[in-house]
């Protein structure tokens, strides 16, 4: 078998066999195929696409390129969640404790953020001494003790995906549904949970800007998960404006804690209820989605979900006083009010531009080496469809460098579009794919 023949076959529009895909992934990962030939094959895939069988084979090959994370010693039906990424997305910090409080094991391996704000791990590190690196034994033991563990990926998980993604990133071959779906699902399936829910974001603040593309990606990933033997559901959700009100690491942790205490933003809470009720169905904890929703509402009202977050922090070495008193979380030196220059209704808030403004403040990473400022960010006071009076506060800028205040304030005035009331009510959830 020769890589030349595989490139030519895909260039000419034919499907690659399982053996050819395995040969490519194994030999590229091991360094036997040079970047220039791998790039040629990726470009051929980009233009001629992959069918469902090829996509599943690619995903399996990437999983088999490294270690898998054995969770068979965890009791019960283990559930996992993945988001394709957005702005102000602290769902994991809320959903995990809610699910665990319902008696279902919630297992999550997360990454660092590269972009608008930090990832789930970065946010959790706003809590003093929170340990994100766990051994397999610690992960299993903690989950059996309290039904939840959230940690960094350990070991040699999907090395083929890491290498291929780096190459796709510099050869303009990222935007291909099979390659995107295979990349995401290989990492999810290497963690041996029993069921997965996918939160596929679409809109200005998401990777997928177009609703049809987002639905196609969701279908592709659900097909992969179910074909691999994992119960998989996808929910396509709105990311045209930030989710919740907080954008920034410690600010999002504070908002997550408030949500677990029953005082969070409605859109963030509603999405957690939707995702959570689906996970409870997948875990066979309930027979109807409505029963799952009621169970989740009850663990919020009773305080059990909030207590579960405290247990998570305690089991992973964190200082629980940071959860009990959010004033202890990292705080910015300055808070600047951004006041409306007009009156009307908020027509739109560009999530991507808000994210870029938070990045400019230091809430995110421009490169892997960039250092995060966990305290800074933006808190929205007004969201889409809200009424705004002249001089009313639209948002609060949390910053440690006052030299950046004027620029971020200017951007926020451009980002907030205020005018007549929208004819159609905003939609949080576009589609469910099972």
From TrEMBL:
<dbReference type="InterPro" id="IPR036320">
    <property type="entry name" value="Glycosyl_Trfase_fam3_N_dom_sf"/>
</dbReference>
<dbReference type="GO" id="GO:0009032">
    <property type="term" value="F:thymidine phosphorylase activity"/>
</dbReference>
<dbReference type="InterPro" id="IPR000053">
    <property type="entry name" value="Thymidine/pyrmidine_PPase"/>
</dbReference>
<dbReference type="GO" id="GO:0004645">
    <property type="term" value="F:1,4-alpha-oligoglucan phosphorylase activity"/>
</dbReference>
<dbReference type="Pfam" id="PF00591">
    <property type="entry name" value="Glycos_transf_3"/>
</dbReference>
<dbReference type="InterPro" id="IPR017459">
    <property type="entry name" value="Glycosyl_Trfase_fam3_N_dom"/>
</dbReference>
<dbReference type="Pfam" id="PF02885">
    <property type="entry name" value="Glycos_trans_3N"/>
</dbReference>
<dbReference type="InterPro" id="IPR017872">
    <property type="entry name" value="Pyrmidine_PPase_CS"/>
</dbReference>
<dbReference type="GO" id="GO:0006213">
    <property type="term" value="P:pyrimidine nucleoside metabolic process"/>
</dbReference>
<dbReference type="GO" id="GO:0046872">
    <property type="term" value="F:metal ion binding"/>
</dbReference>
<dbReference type="InterPro" id="IPR000312">
    <property type="entry name" value="Glycosyl_Trfase_fam3"/>
</dbReference>
<keyword id="KW-0808">Transferase</keyword>
<protein>
    <recommendedName>
        <fullName>Pyrimidine-nucleoside phosphorylase</fullName>
        <ecNumber>2.4.2.2</ecNumber>
    </recommendedName>
</protein>
<dbReference type="InterPro" id="IPR035902">
    <property type="entry name" value="Nuc_phospho_transferase"/>
</dbReference>
<comment type="similarity">
    <text>Belongs to the thymidine/pyrimidine-nucleoside phosphorylase family.</text>
</comment>
<keyword id="KW-0479">Metal-binding</keyword>
<dbReference type="InterPro" id="IPR036566">
    <property type="entry name" value="PYNP-like_C_sf"/>
</dbReference>
<comment type="subunit">
    <text>Homodimer.</text>
</comment>
<dbReference type="InterPro" id="IPR013102">
    <property type="entry name" value="PYNP_C"/>
</dbReference>
<dbReference type="GO" id="GO:0006206">
    <property type="term" value="P:pyrimidine nucleobase metabolic process"/>
</dbReference>
<dbReference type="GO" id="GO:0005829">
    <property type="term" value="C:cytosol"/>
</dbReference>
<keyword id="KW-0328">Glycosyltransferase</keyword>
<dbReference type="Pfam" id="PF07831">
    <property type="entry name" value="PYNP_C"/>
</dbReference>
<dbReference type="InterPro" id="IPR018090">
    <property type="entry name" value="Pyrmidine_PPas_bac/euk"/>
</dbReference>
<comment type="function">
    <text>Catalyzes phosphorolysis of the pyrimidine nucleosides uridine, thymidine and 2'-deoxyuridine with the formation of the corresponding pyrimidine base and ribose-1-phosphate.</text>
</comment>
<feature type="domain" description="Pyrimidine nucleoside phosphorylase C-terminal">
    <location>
        <begin position="345"/>
        <end position="419"/>
    </location>
</feature>
